[in-house]
# Entry
Amino acid sequence: MNAPTGRLESSLTLPQPYLLFLGDTTEAGYAKTAFGLADWAADRCVGELAIGGCTVTTGLPPMSPAQARAAGARSLVIGVANQGGVIGDSWIAALVEAMEAGLDIVSGLHVRLASLPALAEAAKRTGQRLIDVRTPPPSIPIGNGRKRSGKRLLTVGTDCALGKKYTALALHRAFVERGIDADFRATGQTGIMIAGGGMPMDAVVSDFEAGAAEILSPDAPADHWDLIEGQGSIFNPAYAAVSLGLLHGSQPDVFVVCHDPTRKVILGMESFALPSIEEVIDLTIRLGSRTNPAIRCGGVSLNTSSYDAEAAEALMAGERRRLGLPVTDPIRGGASFDALVENILA
# Structure
């Protein structure tokens, strides 16, 4: 139990800039990879590509693969993170066209690109690369539960795809601006593409989830903070396993609950009601205290993108009074976000 915790030594060099592929997506939550890159790595994105039936957009210019290549793009990034991480049959022609235009294909989905014969053949014929981001490093140890030095924050959620990555990135930026020694620790494909490294937690075998989280956030100086991107939700019938392993292995001193106030049911599982913020706080403390008895909730991050400014502030003010915690939308920022940062650091 007292064995040293290993360290993740990895970096990711992807061919940039990117053309973001939206496929035929109709649910914005399933295009979170595209939105994440457009919002946090806009300088590395030249445009977007959609096929018939797609109803979402990042706001980037629509481009064909040839147009994107002429504009400087070097790869097409599959910007969809759907249930099961699969590549639809309807996507294949567009991906082959991208390789024929001179673009590598980058994917964070569970399915391996080279396992699809049409893509493997096109890659061999064109010389373009098929790059899978969701590949864990070899020889991940099991978790040992040893208390590590340094400070850690984990974003947790009432559900998937509602702001855990954005909250961790916004907090990391705020910490750095304050001169605090901090790292953003990516745990999903989009975060890894933004950060240039990380641990694809949902591709790790369950027995090794906690160990993977431990090596992602190793021993650090006492005043160093790791801002760890959360995954899934401990209330999600499909994804609770990765969420719990990440919670135990991260040993967070502080967690922030992320929530979309317009969502009433689990995304893609409409027979399951969304848990309340209070339920998430209670269960996270009870489960997280197994590896860090001092765990506490630093506040709440609300995704108020569907509200106007006045309605968003009224909602957040009401939640502050009800919960007795800082409540903010990190994307809106302002005094409420500063209050969250101060409470985390208190």
Q: What stands out?
A: The chain has a mean pLDDT of 94.
